[in-house]
Specification:
Layout (H helix, E strand, L loop, with lengths): L1 H26 L1 H35 L5 H18 L3 H9 L3 H18 L29 E3 L5 E3 L19
Antiparallel strand pairs: 1-2
Helix pairs in contact: 1-2, 2-3, 2-4, 3-4, 3-5
Length: 178
């Protein structure tokens, strides 16, 4: 499988250089370099504006008690799109701009999140990110107590008890606007 990735990267670099030479031959070297710089600035600007919008949507969904899956997927896509626009090259700029399109960014962001979670390199629910298997603050293999403990002023451990409430599953889609 690594040979497939290596071949893809080499072909991508070759295509970037071919496009760069073609545009440089038609428009000139100075305009080509200015174009690369401008697309980087456009990427940063889009990241700021779209990032604010997605963050606001994410916070609003969390405040309403909804799962912000679509906003999270869009945010991942916008972040990847901005990184692609900062990498010099016109093909990466086009790929980055595609990731900023509203309908596409949610779909591609969801695919990116699905791929990350399927590889096990990112875990939710208080686990270490990037492949760690132990909860935060514990080494892998440590025996975990089923109770939450809190330190009090005198150093004794107190068990914190709580109640939970089971809520029925939502029947409406997450992205539905009221």
């Amino acid at each position: 499988m690594p040979i497939v990735y290596l071949t893809g990267i080499i072909l991508w670099i070759w295509a970037e250089i071919a496009v760069f030479v073609a545009i440089g031959g038609a428009a000139g070297v100075v305009l080509t370099l200015i174009g690369i710089f401008v697309t980087g600035m456009v990427g940063i600007s889009l990241l700021r504006s779209q990032g604010r919008r997605i963050t606001g949507s994410l916070q609003a969904q969390l405040a309403r008690g909804e799962a912000p899956v679509a906003s999270l997927a869009a945010g991942v896509s916008v972040l990847v799109g901005a990184v692609l626009m900062l990498i010099p090259g016109y093909l990466t700029d086009i790929a980055g701009l595609v990731l900023f399109l509203p309908g596409i960014r949610t779909i591609i962001g969801a695919l990116i999140l699905k791929r990350i979670s399927a590889r096990g390199s990112f875990m939710m629910g208080g686990r270490m990110p990037f492949g760690g298997g132990a909860p935060f603050g514990h080494a892998p293999g440590d025996r975990q107590e089923p109770h939450a403990h809190a330190k009090t002023g005198d150093g004794a451990n107190d068990i914190i008890e709580g109640d939970f409430e089971e809520r029925p599953a939502r029947t409406t889609p997450i992205d539905k606007k009221d």
